[in-house]
Amino acid sequence: MKDEKSKKLFKRIMMVFGFLTIVLAIHIYWVTRPKAPDPHTIVMARIDIKNSLNQDDANKIKTWLYQQKGVNHVMVNPKTQIALFTFYPAKASGDHIVYNFQTSFNYDAKRYVPTKEEIANGCPALPPSITQKISSFIKHNL
């Protein structure tokens, strides 16, 4: 009698566990699938400037970038000669902003685009989490 109840309970627990595993897999797939940019999507771009910059130059670049359509936030570091900005891809193109930057200023500048390998490595500050490993497994095996 006890064995029958134990088997039924174990079977139900396994069915619930299996159901929840399927729900988790569907959720991970749904959340991590590629999506087209919508009006609320924000993208980051980087401009590498080969000329030396001082703080006045950095301030001019920052002011100019803020005036561009779709630009959300700007940071310019004169020491590293890098300008970072975020923008709404539904409103503007990063390549277009960089092209306008190159024509507006007499700087030898180029947009930095990470390689596929750099993108795959993600943030080097954090080790891959269990969620990322599960997500990667589901993406590549389902």
Structure description:
- The protein has five helices and four strands.
- A four-stranded antiparallel beta sheet has the order 2-3-1-4.
- The longest helix has 31 residues.
- The chain is elongated.
- The two termini are 41 Å apart.
What would you call the shape?
elongated
Strand content: 15-25%
Structural class by SSE content: alpha+beta
Q: List the uncertain runs.
A: none
Strand order of the largest sheet: 2-3-1-4
Radius of gyration: 24 Å
Q: Tally of extended strands?
A: 4
Largest pleated sheet:
4 strands, antiparallel
**What is the chains' assembly state?**
single chain
Mean pLDDT: 87
Series of secondary-structure elements, N-terminal to C-terminal: HEHEEHEHH
Q: How many DSSP H or I helices?
A: 5
Helical percentage: 40-55%
Short key terms for the protein model shown above:
single chain; 4-stranded antiparallel β-sheet; 142 residues
